[in-house]
Amino acid sequence: MRVDTIAEVATGQPAAHPNGQNVGFVYEVLREAILVGELQPGSVTTQIALAKRYNVGRTPLREALRLLQSERLVVDDPNRRVQITPLTAADAEELYIARVLLEPAAVRLTVPALTSRDDAELRGLMAQMDHYEEAQDWISLREPHGAFHARLFGAAGSRLVAMLEQLFDHAERYRLRAGPPPELWKLRQSEHRAIADAAAARDAERTAELLCAHYAHTAVLTCRSFEADFDPARLRETLRTVAPGTEAELDRAPA
Fold this sequence. Notes:
The chain is mainly alpha-helical. It folds into two domains: 3-84, Orthogonal Bundle (Arc Repressor Mutant, subunit A); 89-251, GntR ligand-binding domain-like (Four Helix Bundle (Hemerythrin (Met), subunit A)). The protein has eleven helices and three strands, in the order H-H-E-H-H-E-E-H-H-H-H-H-H-H. The chain has a three-stranded antiparallel sheet. A hairpin with a 5-residue loop joins strand 2 (74-75) and strand 3. Helix 5 runs parallel beside helix 11.
């Protein structure tokens, strides 16, 4: 969903959205607001306030909040307050543990089936990321960034793809809030290029290895932005199991 869609709803213009009272629509509006930080991590509000802010009905709002609770984006509160799930170093570590357990396996299935068209699309997506980086438009960068990773795991089957897409969205929530500063994005992008090069060579093992190293760097930067002395011990052990040798990258992440 585009970010300006949230603004349209917030300013009370539901006419442009004929399904504005649909549970799925309300869920997508609130989910996007949480992912981009419009609804701040850890903040507390009420159903009445949300219904007024986004001009939606209370019934679909309640159902949408249940969906968001199941996705761990909203905390289940017995007092019927609505708390947006806080961001923490420990939760970020869990996210990256899940990604390095699942995504390399998906990459190994996908990379051998890539075509020259896929290679071209990966290059085009990196060019889009470069464009948004130069404009410092970190929210718009989400779309090509997500499409880049999705291209690398797209052949893994619908169930696994859906899980990985959700994990990506949750990780982007961290990136937008406390991810690598702009000066380090170029380093992240150089890692994307190395991953794309390995995929173009149809070297699935190398692609998976580079992906794990990429996530090791990103995870350390993210976790330590919330807790300076955080030790990602669980992630280290996961990397040691999934891609031996890449756990050393946790100690080589740029400060």
